[in-house]
Amino acid sequence: MLHMNRSLYLVAYDVCNPRRLYKVCRYLKCYRVGGQKSVFELWITPAELRTIRADLDKLMDAQEDRLHVLSLDPRMKPRCYGKASTFTAQYFCIT
């Protein structure tokens, strides 16, 4: 039951500087299970969340950039529209 301590988060960012934007996007793509452009779904542990927050604090400029990390309620049924789909795998490997 390794997945039990994982939670789904929605991460949205707005980075002003193109160089920082590239670094933040590239960093978050390592953790994402879904999303597009500057909004990603992350299925992560509390320890991974702490690491991500600390790393993004270093990559972003608090005076110019914005970051929202929202915990998604696991009791809510996902409602997807159009081509959208939600993450459903219980186990996965990021390579």
TrEMBL record:
<keyword id="KW-0378">Hydrolase</keyword>
<keyword id="KW-0540">Nuclease</keyword>
<dbReference type="Pfam" id="PF09827">
    <property type="entry name" value="CRISPR_Cas2"/>
</dbReference>
<keyword id="KW-0460">Magnesium</keyword>
<dbReference type="GO" id="GO:0046872">
    <property type="term" value="F:metal ion binding"/>
</dbReference>
<dbReference type="GO" id="GO:0004521">
    <property type="term" value="F:RNA endonuclease activity"/>
</dbReference>
<comment type="similarity">
    <text>Belongs to the CRISPR-associated endoribonuclease Cas2 protein family.</text>
</comment>
<comment type="function">
    <text>CRISPR (clustered regularly interspaced short palindromic repeat), is an adaptive immune system that provides protection against mobile genetic elements (viruses, transposable elements and conjugative plasmids). CRISPR clusters contain sequences complementary to antecedent mobile elements and target invading nucleic acids. CRISPR clusters are transcribed and processed into CRISPR RNA (crRNA). Functions as a ssRNA-specific endoribonuclease. Involved in the integration of spacer DNA into the CRISPR cassette.</text>
</comment>
<dbReference type="InterPro" id="IPR021127">
    <property type="entry name" value="CRISPR_associated_Cas2"/>
</dbReference>
<feature type="binding site">
    <location>
        <position position="14"/>
    </location>
    <ligand>
        <name>Mg(2+)</name>
    </ligand>
</feature>
<dbReference type="GO" id="GO:0051607">
    <property type="term" value="P:defense response to virus"/>
</dbReference>
<protein>
    <recommendedName>
        <fullName>CRISPR-associated endoribonuclease Cas2</fullName>
        <ecNumber>3.1.-.-</ecNumber>
    </recommendedName>
</protein>
<keyword id="KW-0255">Endonuclease</keyword>
<dbReference type="GO" id="GO:0016787">
    <property type="term" value="F:hydrolase activity"/>
</dbReference>
<comment type="subunit">
    <text>Homodimer, forms a heterotetramer with a Cas1 homodimer.</text>
</comment>
<dbReference type="InterPro" id="IPR019199">
    <property type="entry name" value="Virulence_VapD/CRISPR_Cas2"/>
</dbReference>
<keyword id="KW-0051">Antiviral defense</keyword>
<dbReference type="GO" id="GO:0043571">
    <property type="term" value="P:maintenance of CRISPR repeat elements"/>
</dbReference>
<keyword id="KW-0479">Metal-binding</keyword>
